[in-house]
Amino acid sequence: MKVWKLIRQLSNQIVMLVINIILYTFKGIQYLFSLPSLIYKQIKLILKGSNVVIKESLTALLICAVGDLFAGIILGNMTFFLETYPGLMVIIPGAIGMRGNIFGSFGSRLSTHLHIGTLSPKFEKSEILTENILSSIILTMFLSIILAIIANIVCFIFKFKCIDIFEMVLILFIAGLISTGIMLPITMFISLKSYENGWDPDNITTPLIAAFGDFFTLPSIIISVILVSFFTKVYLIKIALFIVVILIGVAGLVYGFKHKGNIKQIVKQSTPVLIICSVLGAFAGGVLNDSLTTLLNNQSLLTLVPLFSGEGGGIVSILGARLSSGLHAGLIEPSLRPKEHTIENFTIIIALAIIMYPIIAFMAESSTIAFGGVGVGYSNIIAISFISGLALILIMIFVVFYISSISYKRGFDPDNIVIPLSTSLTDSISTLILISVTLVILGVVV
Question: How far apart are CA 124 and CA 150, in angstroms?
Answer without folding.
Answer: 39
